[in-house]
Amino acid sequence: MLHHLHPGSLLRTQVALLSSIRASTASRSNCRNRPIDLVFIIDSSRSVRPAEFEKAKEFLQDMVDSLEIGSDATRVGLVNYASTVQIEFLLKTYSAKSALRQALARVEPLASGTMTGMAIKTAMEKAFTAEAGARTSSMNIAKVAIIVTDGRPQDKVEDVAAAARASGIEIYAVGVDRADMTSLRLMASHPHDDHVFYVETYGVIEKLTSKFRETLCGKDDDNGSAEIPVNGGIDDYGKGLDGRQDGYGINNENDEKGNNGLDACAQGHNCQHICVNNGNSYNCKCRLGYVLNPDKKTCSLSDACTQGHDCQHICVSNGDSYTCKCRVGYVLNADEKTCSRSDLCTLGHDCQHICVNSDDSYICKCRVGYVLNADQKTCSRSPTCPQGHDCQHICINTDDSYICKCHLGYVLNADGKTCSRSDPCAHGHDCQHICENNEDTYICKCRLGYVLNADQKTCSRSPTCAQGHDCQHICVTSGDSYLCKCREGYVLNADLKTCSRSDACAQGHDCQHICVSSDNSYICRCREGYVLNVDQKTCSRLDTCDQGHDCQHICVKNRDSYLCKCHEGYVLNTDQKTCSQELRSEITQDACMCEAQIVFQKKVLLTIQELSRKLDELSDKVNLIEGRQQQY
């Protein structure tokens, strides 16, 4: 409510207000925001109509116009999402404002669902990275994400948004129309009054540009630095976004209270909505439908809906009252409270053939004989016939209908639908003996006693063996009869049909000691005390002493064993292994006698050794004769 003002005071107030407006205009036209890495995350799901998406893009272009764009200034990226997520361009892609605007104009909606959580995760992991053009934390460049959505997320947003904020990303959430306020608050940074915005339609979203300009554009101070004010919040759908009711509403009654004619509000204030002069100071008030926050400066939208309502679907606070709205796919009835399902298809669609209402949206279908293309809108002729045709074998599409055909080897019956097997043999063949139908062709066969030649047509008399035989192993045709043979290693039995394994050793061998038959051949082995030589035929005596012995002095081979002997001057003990020094009981002074005894003893020892050797040779010969007798 405007109060009556003193004419002089009114003039001063108008001058001050005009100066404030000029300063504000100059500030907007020369916005110098501090450099930030800014990524827009835009909802382009099916609920966002094409015209609404164009409005959203205009909002983004207005935002870009209000910022200082460049590789050393603000960098901008764009994440487009619906049921899938698509990074339209990265922070490093564009450094010129004109190119950035053109890129925004080229963005197309994705349609389908609303996967907001997945979009935030993609932005955090791929858009705010050094590879994408984000600057390092050491440069103290703020990372800002602005999410614009008109619906309720179909996935979880709380945890992924918290992770994004924890990584240093400041998140602003802009809700339009049916946007879920709870989800917006779960996504946005704190305080929510500064980071959560709501507009009723995309038609007024551009009015948020000034609010973001205030947030992102700082004013130069004496040191040339810029500060970001924190006076955002949920606005009254474009009504007086400059903080005053309709841009005015100044109470200047302080002139009558000794304020030296000065308007405290005109001198500068930090009221979010309305400044009211009060003596030498001022008070802040809020516009209709808002309540003053505890800080006595900012305002929050009062929610009449929470006080109770009778809306069937959606209650929308409107000042100190509310209005009812319906969910997508429904229209408000005449009572302005209840809703009825709307026919979305009649409201306009982009289906090439058939539009079918589906819950809060619609889906496209195709006429019989067509299939839906990947764009889920247009149709292409189906390569196969529609379900429900009555062709027994093959259905082939024609322009407006279809025809039936049969598999190879069948002919179409008079009804034009069913098929009967064709008889290729009846239509002519080149088989010498017998023609036999085989699916869609035929094969030739021969009469008994004949075999089919390589040309698969003519026949030749088959060998006698082919007629059947009783040979156990091998049948060999011989004239008009046959004879039986055995495989290698076998001999034909007396019945001239069956076979028995042959004794290869009995056929002759070259083993020195023992021959052992093995399958179709034989192997040689040696008698005990002998080992097989490398030629695998002859044998050599095994040196039992080399195999290990327990003689203290000397080991002497003895056929298949060994015996122990002692060095000269020693005698073998009773264990036949160890030796003890020989004790001589006779002492002689006769050198000749002593020498003679020594020579005699040596000769006796040599004689014994020679006899032992001859006995061994004789034993070997006896063993050899015995071995040969065993073989025969």
UniProtKB/TrEMBL annotation:
Gene Ontology MF: a single term: calcium ion binding
Compartment(s) where it occurs, according to its Swiss-Prot or TrEMBL record: Secreted
Annotated GO biological process: system development
Residue ranges constituting the VWFA domain according to the UniProt record: 37-212
Ranges in coiled-coil conformation: 601-628
Listed Pfam families: EGF_CA (PF07645), FXa_inhibition (PF14670), hEGF (PF12661), Matrilin_ccoil (PF10393), VWA (PF00092)
Alphabetical UniProt keywords: Coiled coil, Disulfide bond, EGF-like domain, Repeat, Secreted, Signal
Boundaries of every EGF-like domain copy: 261-300, 421-460
Single GO cellular component term: extracellular matrix
InterPro entries with a match to the protein in the record: ECM_Assembly_Org, EGF, EGF-like_Ca-bd_dom, EGF-like_CS, EGF-type_Asp/Asn_hydroxyl_site, Growth_fac_rcpt_cys_sf, Matrilin_CC_sf, Matrilin_CC_trimer
Cysteine disulfide partners in this protein: C265-C275, C425-C435
Domain of life where this protein originates: Eukaryota
Name assigned to this protein: Matrilin 3b
Organism: Lates calcarifer
